[in-house]
Amino acid sequence: MRVLGVDPGLTRCGVGVVEGVAGRPLTMLGVGVVRTAADADIGVRLVGIERGIEEWLDRFEPELVAVERVFAQHNVRTVMGTAQASAVAMLCASRRGIPVALHTPSEVKAAVTGSGRADKAQVGAMVTRLLRLSAPPKPADAADALALAICHIWRAPAQNRLQQAVAQNRLQQAVARHQAAQQQASAPQQATTPHQASAVKGRTR
């Protein structure tokens, strides 16, 4: 599986491509940052992020794009910019028919380091170790993008099993409802005797 991880941000949008399967060594194919000028118009910045992500999609042709799920922060301006960059990444992938997966920061940290409260230095160190790199990717946004890709590759088998179990359960419920409806439809209607009809008629008067 080849996954493009995207750590969304307006000024620095981390991107990283990882290839492999769960349980086996993973390989980094590329890592970098899509940058935009902080003093540029928001529309221009979003177009710049779009072009940057499109270039990565053209170059590496990933099977899936993993994006960090936006969560509430005290700085509303920061979370808005993150959400806008995240939307651009999802749009670029969806326009090409590439599936998109969202992972929270705590999910990524837990998958890569074993702790959902790990700091950026710990995440960078584990990414370096897992991908057998000579040094942690810089800046931290790039390391976070690789961590997103690693997280999805490792979590995908479990998620697929869960989705299959849910689908199987829904199928069983649908079959049970269908069988119950058929039994009810095929059940013989109870005949009404003249005495019963007279009693019913009497009660309705």
Automatic annotation (TrEMBL):
Q: What SUPFAM superfamilies does the record point to?
A: Ribonuclease H-like
Which InterPro entries does this UniProt record tie to the protein? RNaseH-like_sf (IPR012337), RNaseH_sf (IPR036397), X-over_junc_endoDNase_Mg_BS (IPR020563), X-over_junc_endoDNase_RuvC (IPR002176)
Where does this protein have compositionally biased stretches of type Low complexity? 177-199
Q: List GO molecular-function terms, semicolon-separated.
A: crossover junction DNA endonuclease activity; DNA binding; magnesium ion binding
Q: Which residues are noted in the entry as Mg(2+) 1-binding?
A: 7, 141
- Coiled-coil stretches are none
Q: Which Gene3D superfamilies match?
A: Ribonuclease H-like superfamily/Ribonuclease H (3.30.420.10)
Quaternary context: Homodimer which binds Holliday junction (HJ) DNA. The HJ becomes 2-fold symmetrical on binding to RuvC with unstacked arms; it has a different conformation from HJ DNA in complex with RuvA. In the full resolvosome a probable DNA-RuvA(4)-RuvB(12)-RuvC(2) complex forms which resolves the HJ.
Protein name per its UniProtKB record = Crossover junction endodeoxyribonuclease RuvC
